[in-house]
User: Fold these one by one.
Assistant:
Number 1:
Amino acid sequence: MEAQLNAASIPTAEALQACGADEAYRRLLRSGARPHFIAYYVLHMALQSRPWNDCKGAEKASLRGDFDALVAEHRGLNEHGIEKILDRIGTGPRR
């Protein structure tokens, strides 16, 4: 995670706190990190000084919706070439 945050221009804990979990995850996606829900909610838990596995129930479901929206936003910004064609013919986004 440290290497991915550095690649996303988030080199310190202070920088992570300043941008917040959603913007940090947005930057991770832009820098080439693959979408992963656990990494997303771990950022939220860490910024609240909570254990990663403290995320449960309605809170986890809410974060899942936020995560899906961020990933959809990212994929929408990066749709081009073969990805767009594959989606148009029904194969869906590449993983």
Note: The helical segments are 2-7, 13-30, 37-47, 57-77, 81-88.
Number 2:
Amino acid sequence: MKPVIFGLIAGLVFGAVDVALMLPMEFPDKKTALLAAFFSRFAIGFLIPLVRMPIPSWAVGAIVGMLISIPDAIITRAYAPILASGLIGGLLIGWASGRYAGS
């Protein structure tokens, strides 16, 4: 599969999963929080198959997932769940990208 197509699919799926996990939570502005979470996770899924580094694809995923998650974690002060989600999602998408997107 082409990396851009894989990235679009991975971003949509990861964004939707993260939003689904956040639905039961309470936020002062829930719509904004869900949109921000979706687009942050979409960016992770979209970028991982497009990034080229001389390391395994799962490591690329972990790096991209963490780098994109750090600003959200700092702003919300919810470090553990945001960084863990970015790391685990990045690892999984990176692994799948290496296997199915030719990266």
Note: The chain has four helices and no strands.
